[in-house]
Amino acid sequence: MSALNGVGSRTVLITGAGKGLGRALALELAKKGHTVIGCARTQDRLNSLQSELSDPNSPSDKHLFLSADVRSNGSVEELARVVMEKKGVPDIIEGFLSPNDLQVLEKTRSKSVARDLKTNIKVVPVNNAGTINRNNRIWEVPEEEFDTVIDTNVKGIANMLRHFIPLMLVRKQGIIVNMSSGWGRSGAALVAPYCASKWAVEGLTRSVAKELPDGMAIIALNPGVINTDMLASCFGNSASGYQAPEAWALKAATMILNLTAADNGASLTV
Ligand SMILES: NC(=O)c1ccc[n+]([C@@H]2O[C@H](COP(=O)([O-])OP(=O)(O)OC[C@H]3O[C@@H](n4cnc5c(N)ncnc54)[C@H](OP(=O)(O)O)[C@@H]3O)[C@@H](O)[C@H]2O)c1
């Protein structure tokens, strides 16, 4: 059996793939034979991820890593354009095909190939990029820090949805995962901006779920508590007592790959 272990080939787009959960998930999915499109702002980290995936079993040109800032609508628009341009190729893309692409494809390829493309391949965008405020009571949080948390965690996802959902609507297929948090379902002192942003992610997800056609799904995912730079920012040294991103990614990849349209609007936990 192939490394795909019975799950059809997926193209998974992960924002914030440079480190932490996004990086671990990218590596795990690539190991399982899926195609990863990753973005983050820091090019060095993307380069390191790209070279880690450059082995004979996972050719580097299969994956695509692009620098993008999810806070910027223009940057995400450009990301969507480049993804379409570079990955708008028939063997791995389903949701990103434009109607015109599909017509051309059906004329130039055998019917069976075109049929496989329409039925077997799914795109799974994982809106994972995020940031947290430094531990502080709300009246001590500088305005620009509050803005950065909201711009990244909430507006960043909105930017992704604005530019990627229309591409997915063409085939009315695809699962969107919005990274939430336990703190998107409860309150905590010193991280009020972050909690506010993750509650917004939950509300955004449930509302967009009502706008998507049958066949598509958007879900909010609480990943649990994992030892990353973000956790160290709020938990300090005790972050090292929590699970490693690699252990988390084993469970998360399986869960994400098994999501279906029936999960639309759900708030799930890894
Ligand atoms: N770790 C946990 O225990 C935990 C718990 C609950 C929820 N979460 C959520 O899980 C997600 C990942 O968290 P993590 O712990 O892996 O955090 P992390 O280690 O700090 O990694 C965050 C990633 O997001 C990227 N990023 C940040 N701002 C960005 C922007 N404006 N545009 C594009 N990429 C950006 C970062 O890369 P650049 O800085 O290079 O852009 C980095 O790759 C977040 O949404 C977080 O809220 C984590």
Number of strands: 7
Class computed from helices, strands and strand pairing = alpha/beta
Kindly report the CATH topology.
Answer: Rossmann fold
Integer-rounded radius of gyration: 18 Å
- Helix tally? 9
Mean pLDDT: 86
Q: CATH superfamily, please? A: NAD(P)-binding Rossmann-like Domain
Uncertain spans: 89-99, 108-121
What small molecules accompany the polymer chains? NADP nicotinamide-adenine-dinucleotide phosphate
**Which range best describes the helical content: under 10%, 10-25%, 25-40%, 40-55%, 55-70% or over 70%?**
40-55%
Tell me, briefly, the overall form.
globular
CATH class: Alpha Beta
The gist of it:
Belongs to the short-chain dehydrogenases/reductases (SDR) family. By secondary structure, the protein is α/β, with parallel strands linked by helices.
